[in-house]
Amino acid sequence: MNNGVSIQTQQLNKRFGPVHAVRNLDLEVRQGSRFGFLGPNGAGKTTTVRILSGLLKQSSGTATVCGRPLDSKRNEIKAVTGLLPETPGTYSKLSAVEFLEFIGALNGQNGSELDHRIDSLLGLLGLETRQDDLLESYSSGMKQKVLIASTLLHDPKLVFLDEPTSRLDPSVSAVVKELIQILAEETATTFFICTHQTSFAEDVCNQIGIIIEGELVIEGSVDEIIHAAKAKNLEDAYLRIVGSQVDRSALLNWR
What we know:
By secondary structure, the protein is an alpha/beta fold. The chain has helices spanning 45-52, 74-80, 96-106, 111-124, 140-152, 170-187, 198-204, 222-228, 234-242, 248-252; strands at residues 5-16, 19-30, 34-38, 60-65, 68-69, 81-84, 158-162, 190-194, 207-212, 215-220.
């Protein structure tokens, strides 16, 4: 780790032809932080995660992830980070245990240590009674739990989560929130969380960044952002910052 910093970027840019998806991103995320990355659809959140996780090469700029330079240590970065994309896939003809054993093998894990890790994660997420059932019989929420377990299986130092609770019911979302907080506090795991759910970010994250059209427009603690936007909560601050406040009078007089 680089002086307690999990992520550091300098003038990071990504272009797709004429589209400037990420613009001059300067960001520092401390080790053990729970960083919430908020922004409208198409703002550049997922592109940023794909760059920082080593899946996509930036157009310009530099970054260090877990003390490793992004340009030369992509494979090492992949080994010490976990990534749960917004629309991941599973192998429907495998059971939860078989799927996690497969993911573990891809990360060089095996034996009793892997078995213990799988049992612990499935138990924590309430899947121990269904762990030998095929994933094709799982609900979307149950599959999301298995995918969260697969992301945490190799004990990564930095975890990227893209809308981690989008398909979960409130009770399971509460478990995921608690899991993130415990891991961040007790193991110094850093979480970089892309989400549209400001309530989730407000409950879980101790650092927030808001990105609009590829540009990081504000970054700070939840309280700092609420204060800067002169808002009552994070949702209100987010709507003020992205310029999406609802015109209530117009709604009431639409006819």
